[in-house]
Write a structure and sequence with these properties.
about 425 residues; binds uridine-5'-diphosphate-xylopyranose; alpha/beta; Rossmann fold; 6-stranded parallel β-sheet; 14 strands; 8-stranded mixed β-sheet; about 40% helix; elongated
Length: about 425
């Protein structure tokens, strides 16, 4: 690839911004387009609308090669490769809503220098074939198509993009596969080329298997509670087998985020559309729902009733190191607690209130200490490292009842009990 390949990126969400910034970092000239005027205004003025380590600096140092716009024509002007990074939310039927993908595809007739369209958005298997047909019908038969799914995790997306375990490129012709491979020159990781459908499936299968590991260890944790074993030791021993690996074996209150819940539902729906019911994935999803119901039930058992109880939720984002509230377990817990008549208060260092539905029903506090004051129970929902530094002895002394549910096994049971807490965690005796 000659330096300065011109790339248009549609969508300035987590994936679009990281993709755009990293492609500019690799030396390409990138225009990122979004439909949200406020987002584009922020980006143009040098602000980054999301929190992602390293992203702001990367955008700033590549500003010669990286621009942001609302205008489709400006985006496509001279573009040789179009990256589709728009969101594909679940529709009412459970299938992914691809309307934003289609709206990009419909605009491509205006791109006179176009060589390839690359879809990074997570889409059902078979989407590439439909896009291919639409391109052909629009007189764009000469334009290549590639699926290039994203495997980055939030909070380390820039790092994951530049140093991935693998880059998956699904293309049905060699020229497109070569073009997209070359475009990744400078990325430190192996490139695997396959057909479009397999690449689409690889993304869904990867996320489903990661979610499976978590649900599996969560079920083992439940059994540990019933048998007196300690799931932390069990997970450590299991993970040391290199065939299994220690990643994604941390028990907790369940998985959330922008990918696992949406992608596992989409894969289940995709299967059922083919007439096959995915047995394991259904159980994985059910265990994840159960995990949150069990947490509420255990708290209820401890307090007698949740009606009138004051409960503090510590950590609201779906995991630490992000401001993202999408499908966060905290939202499910808050909803159930409120339905049971509890008063809910919360603390989080980074969650973006505008996107967080529970903020409208709960009181947000500036510190964990202030959130637990006068509370009957606290639930540690997100394992923010700050929660390790809290003066828990003092926190216990200001609670009405020092009941503590450590939903991430972040703290030491012996220490917390010695401070006077009734301490409950996941799968530890
Ligand atoms: C995930 C995948 O890791 C990534 O490859 C994909 O592209 C998008 O989905 P992300 O959603 O950013 O990334 O978060 P991740 O760090 O994978 O965590 C997902 C959820 O699982 C979080 O709610 C987290 O708390 C939970 N989790 C993770 C556990 O409960 N236990 C674990 O051991 C690991």
């Amino acid at each position: 690839v000659r330096p300065g390949l011109r790339i248009a990126v549609f969508g300035a969400g987590y994936i679009g911004l990281v993709t755009g910034a990293c492609l500019a970092e690799l030396g390409h000239r990138v225009v990122v387009r979004d439909i949200d005027p406020e987002k584009v205004r922020l980006l143009r003025s040098g602000d980054v609308p999301i929190y992602e380590p390293g992203l702001g600096d990367m955008i700033a140092r590549n500003k010669e090669r990286l621009t942001f716009t609302l205008d489709v024509q400006e985006t496509l002007n001279g573009a040789e490769v179009v990256y589709v990074c728009v969101d594909t939310p679940p529709s009412a039927s459970g299938d992914a809503d691809l309307s934003r993908v289609w709206s990009v595809v419909r605009s491509l007739e205006a791109a006179s220098h176009l060589r390839a369209v690359v879809v990074k958005s997570t889409v059902p298997v078979g989407t590439g074939a439909r896009v291919r047909a639409a391109l052909d019908a629009a007189g764009l038969g000469h334009v290549g198509y590639a699926a290039n799914p994203e495997f980055t995790a939030e909070g380390r997306a820039v790092e994951d993009f530049l140093h991935p375990d693998r880059v998956v490129i699904g293309a049905d012709d060699d020229a497109t596969a070569a073009l997209i491979s070359e475009l990744h020159t400078g990325v430190d990781g192996p490139v695997v080329v396959m057909d479009v459908r397999s690449a689409e499936m690889a993304k869904l299968a990867s996320n489903a298997l990661l979610a499976t590991k978590i649900s599996f260890i969560n079920e083992i944790a439940t059994l540990c509670e019933k048998t007196g074993a300690d799931v932390e030791d069990v997970a450590r021993a299991v993970g040391m087998d290199h065939r299994l690996g220690h990643h994604f074996l941390r028990p907790g209150i369940g998985w959330g985020g922008s990918c696992f819940p949406k992608d596992s539902e989409a894969l289940r729906q995709l299967a059922s559309n083919t007439g096959y019911h995915l047995q394991m994935l259904s159980a994985v999803i059910e265990v994840n729902n159960l995990q949150k119901r069990r947490a509420i039930q255990r708290l209820k058992d401890e307090l007698g009733t949740l009606a009138g109880a004051r409960v503090a939720l510590l950590g609201m984002t779906f995991k630490p190191g992000t401001d993202d509230m999408r499908e966060a377990p905290s939202t499910v817990l808050a909803g159930r607690l409120l339905a049971e008549g509890a008063e809910v208060r919360c603390w989080d260092p980074m969650a973006r209130p505008a996107e967080a539905e529970p903020w409208t029903w709960t009181t947000r506090h500036e510190s964990p200490r202030s959130a637990v004051e006068g509370a009957d129970a606290a639930i540690l929902v997100t394992d923010w490292p700050q929660l390790k530094e809290v003066d828990w002895a003092q926190a216990a002394s200001v609670m009405r009842r020092p009941v503590f549910f450590d939903g991430r096994n972040l703290l030491d049971p012996a220490v917390m009990r010695s401070l006077g807490f009734t301490y409950i965690s996941v799968g530890r005796p």
